[in-house]
Amino acid sequence: MSKTLAVFNMKGGVGKTTTAYNLAVGLVKFHSAKVLLVDIDPQGNSSVSLGIPIWELELQLKDVLQKRATVDEVVIFSKSGVHVIPSNILLAEEEIPISGLPGRELLLRKALSNISNNYDFVLIDCPPNIGVFSVNALMASQEVIIPVDMSYLGLLGINAVERAITMVRSALDHPIELAGVLGTRFDGRNKLSKEVLSSLEQHFGSKMFQAVIPETVKLREAPSYGISIYDHDPTGAGAQAYEDFVTEIVSQYE
Ligand code: ADP
Ligand code: MG
C-alpha cells in the first residue's frame, strides 16, 4: 500500500530537504521501493539536490496545481531512480492565485489521487512556512515527518509545528498522524546538541526516530553535485545515519 509522507517544519534550515531527498534515494537504493518526491517549495532545493536542472523546466508542480498539466506530464525520472515532481521559483508567483482557487487546500491531494498507488512512497518536501503549499502537502499526506535541528530556536519552533498540525486535524478535518520526529544537524562536541536531543526525547518519547543525523560537511556538499549522501560519501557518518533512518521508515510500514 502506498504511503504519502510530508516532511514539514516551519523553521528553515532544519534539514527538511536534506532528509526528503536522502530518504527518497535511500528507499530506492536499499529497499527497491518505488518513490515519488514532490517538491512543493519554490526554492526547488530537493529537485536540484537530485540533479534536476530546475531553470529549464517546461512543466512543473505549479502547472499541476493549476490543472494545466497532469502529473504524468510533469514527472521527471531522476538518475537516482526517484521520480520527481519538480518546482522552481515560479511556484512562488502562483501562491496568491492558487490561494484564491476553490478547494485550494486539496489541489495536491486530488492531483496525486490517480497516481499515488503507482508508488510505495510519495514524499513531499515542504517550504519553511505554513502557507497554502504546506497546507496542500499536509492535506495530501497520511503522516508527517518533522526534522528538528539541534538548536534552541529549533526546540522553540516545535510548538508552532504542533499547532499547525492540530489546525490541519481540527479546522480542516484531516486525521494526519505524526510519523515521527527526526533529530538533525547533531554535533556531539556541542553541549546544546545533547540538551536539545534529550528535551525532544522527553517530549516525544517513542515518536522520536532512533536515528540522529549528524552535522557533516559531506551532507552539506552533496546537493552541489546533484547526488545523495550515499553516492557522495558512502562510508561516512551522514550516509550511515540516513540509511538507519530509511530502515526505520521501512519497518514502520511493513
Ligand atoms: P530546510 O529544507 O529545512 O530549509 P535544508 O535541508 O535545506 O533545510 O538544510 C539547510 C542547509 O543546511 C543546507 O545548506 C544543507 O545542505 C545544510 N544541512 C542540512 N542538514 C545538514 C547536516 N546534517 N549537516 C550539514 N549540513 C546540513
Ligand atoms: Mg528545504
TrEMBL record:
Taxonomy, superkingdom: Bacteria
Domain AAA: 3-174
CDD domains with a match to the protein in the record: ParAB_family
Any Pfam family hit: AAA_31
Family: Belongs to the ParA family.
PANTHER family, alphabetized: P-LOOP CONTAINING NUCLEOSIDE TRIPHOSPHATE HYDROLASE (PTHR13696), PARA FAMILY PROTEIN CT_582 (PTHR13696:SF52)
The protein's name: Chromosome partitioning protein ParA
